[in-house]
From TrEMBL:
Keyword Transcription regulation (UniProt): no
SUPFAM superfamilies, A to Z: Periplasmic binding protein-like II (SSF53850)
Cross-referenced Pfam families: NMT1 (PF09084)
Protein name: Nitrate ABC transporter substrate-binding protein
Amino acid sequence: MKSSLAMKSALTMKSALGLIALALAAAFATGSSARAADKVTVGVIPIVDVAPIYLGKEKGFFEKQGIDLTLQLAQGGAAIVPSVVSGQYQFGFSNMTSLIVAQSRGLDFKVVAAGDSSTGKAGKDFSAIVVPKDSTISGAGDLAGKTVAVNNLKNIGDTTVKAAMRKAGGDPSGVKFVELAFPDMPAAVANGRVDAAWVVEPFLTITRDQGAKVVSWNLVDTADRLMTAAYFTTARYAKSHPDIVKRFTAAMNQSLDYAQNHREEARRELLSYTRIPKDVVDRITLPDWTTKINRKSTQTLADLAVKDGLVKKRPDLGSLLP
């Protein structure tokens, strides 16, 4: 009788321990795989450059890193920067000159991933200086004393235009820059309101469709494979949330790699978040989406920012770049 009771007790204990083990295994399994994803909002602009992050979200690269990604469209970097500073956005997309200027003004930012870069190929880049079809201007050196449209004054547009002028032997001191939104530039060039304009895709293709001539591939003339933009956060957020930053960077780099190696898929992605007509999307030149942080070209932009009076002292790129 005692033997029977002992056996029954042992079996009961064994079953109980088995159930506990199963419960613990289930708890640990769900704890790792079903952990609530971190909500992350990124401020972006509805332009060609940000196709990789849209593609990466669609492919699940951010989800695999435990990130619940929201992409918030803004009209420009002027709206993105304060939203990142306030914490409304955890990350943002900006051109490098804007980040350099912001850093020099005491805004402590940290680049976490490349955004996009020039292809480095004259004739096959996404940015150029264009002039009306009947213009006598034949090169960047001829822009001295002329009126040139850029989307923002004292930013990457006018500094790279000036760099292209210097390379061509021109004097940029007398050039007059006027601020125009990119969508307004094709008409301004066509009707002669400006002597020239700095345009990026899709407006480069649109202006050329209207007969405009390219006189300089300004990004190519400024630096080799110039990194034009990046994804960034505040130094404060990077310090307090290093794991999220690490995972965001990993997902972003995977997105950049995928877009670079599946360029036609990235091209089609433009139809999901921009209003670019399909026939134009099919013909535009895409930027390079390398994961490399081009420190050399960023230093060139920083030097130009000093030379052209955008900043008063040499920026601290060591704290800005990873």
